[in-house]
Amino acid sequence: MTLPTLPALLADQLAYHTRVLLRTPRAVIGGMLLPILLLLLRNGTAHATHLEQVKLLAGLIAFGALSTAYITHTASLVAARQDGVLKRWRATPLPAWCYFAGRIAAVALLAAIGGTLTALAGSAHDHLHLSLGTIADLSLILTLGAATWASIGTAASALIPTTEAAWPLLGVIYLPLMILSGGFGNVGGQPGWPATIIDYLPVRPIIDSTSRALQAGGSIPATSPHDLAVLAAWAVAGMVLSLRYFRWAPRTAGRRRHYRRAS
Amino acid sequence: MSAIVVDRLERRFGDLVAVDDVSFEVGAGEVVALLGPNGAGKTTTLEILEGYLAPTAGHVSVLAEDPCRGGRAWRARIGVVLQSTSLDLGLTVRDSLGLISRLFPDPRPIPELLELIGLESDARTRIGHLSGGQRRRVDLALGIIGRPELLFLDEPTTGLDPEARRDTWATVKQLAAEGTTVLLTTHYMEEAQQLARRLLVLVGGRLVADSTGDHLRARAGQTRIRLPVPTEADLSGLPDMLAQHVAGGQLELLVDSDDLPAILEQLLEWTQWNDIHLAGLQIAPPTMEDTYLELTCQNHRPQSPSYV
């Protein structure tokens, strides 16, 4: 008897994690409905320039994608660890990388779908032209961005002890970073050095690339080498930290209290 | 050939010693129970053998591999039932079994598993809607789904009702009869006796006994005497060393086997004199639970392992 092939395992994992995400209210609301709701509730865009409308839409698309890739992915990873589900997977012949590849691919898929839906809603709301080339570009950017943030979230999960602690610990990074990176509109009066730092954090590259894709309509590569390099660097950093610090089992402080101290 | 080899195993968490200089072997096809009070190091030992934790010192080998380096093929040969339920509550029973079964080269058919755990009628029920005992049975099914050569069971029947517990025992006995090696932890002495021929007792991270249940009981070298004593009985004629063991309408004491004839003689004389019926008199070796409690109390302070 031979072990199942890796492509079969990957396909199975992708299908499983996509199902799990689709039944997670946080993923559907935060990644798909909330950006569209914010788009519709936005005031004052009627007199905004085309460029301003595009940048606001790009911010909302990034907001939804990061909500799925960072908040939902990481919080559900912490929940799965706390409930012992990760430990159960680890006891099976499924390779660890296969589990994460399936999980991150599902997150990227959902982020791309959510982003495309937001773009379509924005196009209808703001009368923007959305070509197939733009949608292809957007999907690529969001897949890259989501994979990067899922990698960061996987590493961050090692620092989050419980499901209850997940949202505050994740939100305290995600929301300020979204605002400072211009996800909800231009942040005026920023001194030079914070703006430079923000350029090297993994939110602005996603917003800028999305914005370029919406403007260019797929006629030019939307992702600049700088954006790609920043996202790739953060993805690799997340992966390295995950390999070093990721835990499959929940913390066992309660159990360790029983043990005697070394004399 | 040994399925498990543990040699001078030590595991520390910072300055806390969870497992301290533990050595034992489990032969292929053997069923062994790992016993000990909470915090004795049972689960830590099991987690090291399952590959979740690395030893701080010492050496372990499971199916001739280092568990920390065991690959897919090795993982397909072991089965694990964790201490607490570890299921995706949103999946149905059938989907959960199907998902895990597709990871193994030769999984048991899902209908066979459903029948084995008695959940055929709940196959389409979401695991989140099952009772705690039913979820535990799904856990067991996931542990044996890949026809493991070696099965780790960490307190597999905790929280089960007596009927479900008996069903689980029957399943484990069936697996053992098929040649599966089983290492289980439990707090139930009856379970250990029912399932395992050999018992390992851990106390404070140290192995204090490695023996069969019968040997452990015999090693105590004592006999338990129990006699119901009517409340109106006159205890004045009863020797002090017996009278002090009368409480709640029952005389109960453990005596060294060598002293048994003399003590029985005194007791029988007193019962005859006071016209007390001997219908409820019990003279027996201590129960497994008595022996275990004595062993864990004696070894509360760590000492060298003793073997029978």
Structure, described:
- The complex is a heterodimer of chains A (about 260) and B (about 300).
- Chain A is mainly α and about 260 residues long.
- Chain A is built from eleven helices and one strand.
- Chain A has helices at about 5-20, 25-40, 50-80, 85-90, 95-125, 130-155, 165-180, 190-200, 205-215, 225-245, 255; one strand spanning about 260.
- In chain A, α3 packs across α9, α5 packs across α6 (about 130-155) and α6 (about 130-155) packs antiparallel against α9.
- Chain B has about 300 residues and is of the alpha/beta class.
- Chain B contains eleven helices and 14 strands.
- Chain B has helices at about 40-50, 70-75, 95-100, 110-115, 130-145, 160-175, 190-195, 215-220, 240-245, 260-275, 290-300; strands at about 1-15, 15-25, 30-35, 55-60, 80, 150-155, 180-185, 200-205, 205-210, 220-230, 245, 250-255, 280-285, 305.
- In chain B, the strands form three sheets. Chain B has a seven-stranded mixed β-sheet, sandwiched between helices. In chain B, strands 11-12-10-13 form a four-stranded antiparallel β-sheet. A three-stranded antiparallel β-sheet of chain B has the order 2-1-4, covered by helices on one side.
- In chain B, β11 (about 245) and β12 form a beta hairpin.
- Chain B starts with a strand and ends with a strand.
- The model of chain B is unreliable at about 300-308 (pLDDT under 50).
- At the A-B interface, α1, α4 and β1 of A face β2, α1 and α2 of B.
